[in-house]
Amino acid sequence: MKNPGVAAVLSFFISGLGQIYNGQIGKGLIILGVQIVNAILTVILIGFITGPLVWIWAIYDAYSTAKELNEQTGTVAGP
């Protein structure tokens, strides 16, 4: 059982960590790598656009994936 709130909070603090919590190790590491590239891209300003977009998407994806995993197993976790 995965708590969607925990998954979202983990991705809020470190992009990709919520995906790793959900068991999607590869996806989480890719998101983390993309955010590292985005941090480097802030030098040419594009990272200021792509970084927050990936960050917000990672939070949403971690939350929705945790909910889907719980629905597949028939369990419900937290609010």
Summarize the structure.
By secondary structure, the chain is mainly alpha-helical.
What does this protein structure show overall?
This is NINE protein. The chain crosses the membrane at residues 28-60. This protein has 79 residues and is an all-alpha fold. Helix content is 75%, strand content 0%. The chain has helices at 4-13, 17-21, 25-41, 47-73. The longest helix is centred in the C-terminal third of the chain and has 27 residues, at 47-73. The two termini are 13 Å apart.
Which key features would you list for this structure?
79 residues; mainly alpha; 4 helices; 75% helix; elongated
Runs with pLDDT <50, length 5+?
Answer: none
Report how far the terminal alpha carbons are from each other. 13 Å
- Derived from helix and strand composition plus strand pairing, the structural class reads mainly alpha
Counting DSSP H or I runs of 4 or more residues, the number of helices is 4
Please state the CA-atom Rg, rounded to the nearest Å. Answer: 13 Å
Relative helix content: over 70%
Tell me the β content.
Answer: under 5%
Shape: elongated
Average pLDDT across residues?
A: 91
Number of domains: 1
H/E order of the elements?
HHHH
Give the number of DSSP strands: 0
User: Strand count, sense and closure of the main sheet?
Assistant: none
